[in-house]
Amino acid sequence: MDKILIRDGFEPEAVREAAALLEKGEPVAFPTETVYGLGADAFNPVAVARIFELKKRPHFDPLIVHVADRGWVERLASSIPGEAKLLMDRFWPGPLTIILKKTDLVPDIVTAGLSTVGIRMPKHPVALTLLEHLGRPIAAPSANPFGYMSTTSASDVASLFDGGLPLVLDGGMSSYGIESTIVSMVDGQVRLHRHGSVTVEELASVVGPVTEKGRDNKKCESPGELPYHYAPHTPLRIVASPQEIVKERSCFLAFAKPPAHVRSRHVRVLSAKGDLREAAGRFFSSLIALDREGMDVIYAERVPETGLGRAIMERLRKAEKRPAGNALKP
Ligand code: TXA
Ligand code: MG
Q1: Which whole number is the average pLDDT over 261-276?
Q2: Domain ends where: 178, 212, 246?
Q3: In this predicted model, what pLDDT tens digit does every residue of 157-172 receive, in sequence order?
Q4: Is 327 inside any structural domain?
Q5: What is the DSSP string of 34-102?
Q6: 310 and 196 fall within a common domain
Q7: Are residues 207 and 255 in the same domain?
Q8: Hey, which of 34, 36, 64 would you mutate to test ligand 1's pocket, going by the most ligand atoms within 8 Å of its Cβ?
Q9: What is the pTM of this model?
Q10: Would residue 255 count as lying in a domain?
Q11: Is 273 in the same domain as 189?
């Protein structure tokens, strides 16, 4: 298989090349401050279809549209409620995706036929420069095969898409390490669709309490919000402490510094001092590394469910629910 080219995203020539590839309808992986994205020109339906193919992602799962300036939001969204503007003022550029009613400019394949579009202005300088060079929005899901964990480094992207992608722009480790928070603002209410790098406490400080989208909603507005997701191939079990570890052929993803003797063969610590931001930053890269050890089970230690801890636990619970039999193996 062809090797994927990794290029330094801080080199202007590399970004120009990436923009030229996108213009030709080719996919390009690029860094954002949350996780790496697998991008296509948002206005080129054939290029967007290629992203679905590359990820083996079902076509009912809509993509986020990335923009570098607020002017685009008016062209992509048919109405922008005042609260959405407040959220953009406070969190953009940054890890917040806002779902709004879409205009006809957004191809249906991007939104999986929904009448809404998720929009985000990323904060990573390489992502912003790429968007500016292209001069158009980029539709991009996280750069991982469907169902697998998101990637936070260029080398993890390259190893998961070996051969399928012409270029990965390297922008270093994603600083947040967890995907963007997703809210919708389509029916006069701010609703939380996915916990992420902006905490619910931070959202509430701008727009008051947000309604968490019920898991058992009668109508599934975001078919992409599956109960399982973000899963390693190795089965994952959440534990309250390392005392619950029974298998030796296992990995342990510790939240804070574990005791000296842990039964697992491979241990990774998310944050020795128990800091949730540091833990979020290391979360996906640590899990991907443990998954490569080929053990029977990964035990993941519960983290406190405040702030970013909610986003981490949401992902661990989804990983634990992964259907048996490696159904999601890419
Ligand atoms: O941090 C992030 O959000 C990263 C970076 C690359 O921006 N992107 C990302 O994209 O995580 P993805 O495709 O892996 O997750 C986006 C989620 C999906 O669950 C999708 O169903 C949901 O956003 N989504 C996108 N557009 C939507 C819409 N119009 N209505 C409801 N959900 C939507
Ligand atoms: Mg994803």
Answers
A1: 97
A2: 212
A3: 999 998 789 999 999 9
A4: no
A5: SS-EEEEETT-HHHHHHHHHHHT--TTSPPEEE-SSTHHHHHHBS---HHHHHHHHHH-SSSEEEEEEB
A6: no
A7: no
A8: 64
A9: 0.93
A10: yes
A11: no
Q: Same domain for 82 and 203?
A: yes
Looking at ligand 1, which atom is closest to the CA of residue 38?
Answer: 6
Taking the centre of ligand 2 as the mean of its atom positions, its distance from the CA of residue 141, in whole angstroms, is: 6
Q: Does 265 share its domain with 167? A: no
Which two tokens mark 97? 């995706």
Looking up residue 204, the CATH number of its domain turns out to be 3.90.870.10
Residue 2 confidence class, pLDDT cut points 50, 70, 90:
low
Q: What is the mean pLDDT of residues 127-154?
A: 97
* pLDDT category of residue 228 using cuts at 50, 70 and 90: low
The residue that leads in pLDDT, 71 or 218, is 71
What is the domain count for the chain? 2
Determine the distance separating the centroid of ligand 2 and the alpha carbon of 310, expressed in angstroms. 17
Candidates 51, 97, 128: which one to mutate for ligand 1, based on the most atoms within 8 Å of Cβ?
97
Q: What is the 3-state secondary structure (H, E, C) of 238-285?
A: EECCHHHCCCCCEEEEECCCCCCCCCCCEEEECCCCCCHHHHHHHHHH
Percent of the residues in the chain that have a pLDDT greater than 90, as a whole number? 85
Classify residue 228: in a domain, yes or no.
Answer: no
